[in-house]
Amino acid sequence: MTKTQREYKDRLFRFLFGSSEHKDWSLQLYNILMGTEFSDPDQLTLFTLENVLYKTWKNDIAMIGPDGRLLLVEQQSTPSVNLPVRMLSYVSQSLNKYLALTGRTWFDARPIEIPAPFFYTVYNGTIRLSAYTISLSSLYSGTVSEQALDLRTVWIDINGIQENEGHGKCRPLYEYQWFVKHARQNMKNMSGYQAFRKALEDMPENFVIRNYLTANQKEVIMLSLYEYDEKLVRKNDAEYYYENGFLDGERKGKNKGLAEGKLEGESAQVCRMICSIMKNHGFSFDETCRFLCLTEEEIRISRKRLEESGVL
Q1: What is the pLDDT of residues 10-26, one digit of tens each?
Q2: pLDDT for 263-310, tens place per residue?
Q3: What is the spatial distance between Cα 292 and Cα 277, in angstroms, rounded to a whole number?
Q4: Half-sphere exposure of residue 23: CA atoms within 13 angstroms, side-chain side
Q5: Is pTM, for the whole model, over 0.90?
Q6: How is the chain split into domains, by residue range?
Q7: Is 160 left (phi over 0), alpha (psi -120 to 50) or beta?
Q8: Count of Cβ atoms closer than 10 Å to residue 157 Cβ
């Protein structure tokens, strides 16, 4: 099997369900969320966007089903009431792309037929949630008696998903959550890298996603580690890196575990992410930069700063 080449920071969820190599898994996800029973993956169109909201991130999954409906799916491990705002941006961009592909414009005199959009969030965080819906109108400021525009995002908690029952009827989704659950359990007594590798090793041989994940083992682990570390950065950025010496501009320790000097400007978060992955998971500077898909200029600046701080 040819290993998939990634040119952007990605998530494991999209690696599984947004790949043209396995549109059958995408179709299974579409069927379980939309209540359909389509069987021909070639009738499904993957429609994921590039560079929406964030410089280097894509939205997770967008696809147009055989019935012509547009499904947008985001995977979340933390609750967020602001998903409808993000989905609004995603669907606007998706419709622009749809019009471009069909040769239509907003200025056509004839009515434009567009795919009906549906919005789902697949949640697998540690805080258990019941299935619920968040509306865009709930975020409107002031008193609004009548909404001219609304958007509803349905949240589905896949923690505790059962094989061949409910959403577990989507076999790849059940197996994806199995992997996440076991890696999370492993993290209680081992490093992130070891936890994800052990989860891969323990995955049952009859899992349909097993061969695909093991064939791309290093990349799968890196995708998982990146998501894990990104959450860590966002959750407690300043305190975490201060404790590890990465932002302490006054100390000049010679220990390589300390990063001396203040990381400022636009390259600060890039340097922090590099330091975190190198320190916690044992990857080299070059391996980390390749995974993060950094530009030559970003690599040059990061290398210079980390060399000056004593990390490299």
Answers
A1: 578 988 999 889 999 99
A2: 344 567 678 778 877 776 677 888 777 766 677 888 888 888 888 888
A3: 10
A4: 17
A5: no
A6: 12-228, 244-309
A7: left
A8: 19
CA 165/CA 171 separation, integer angstroms: 10
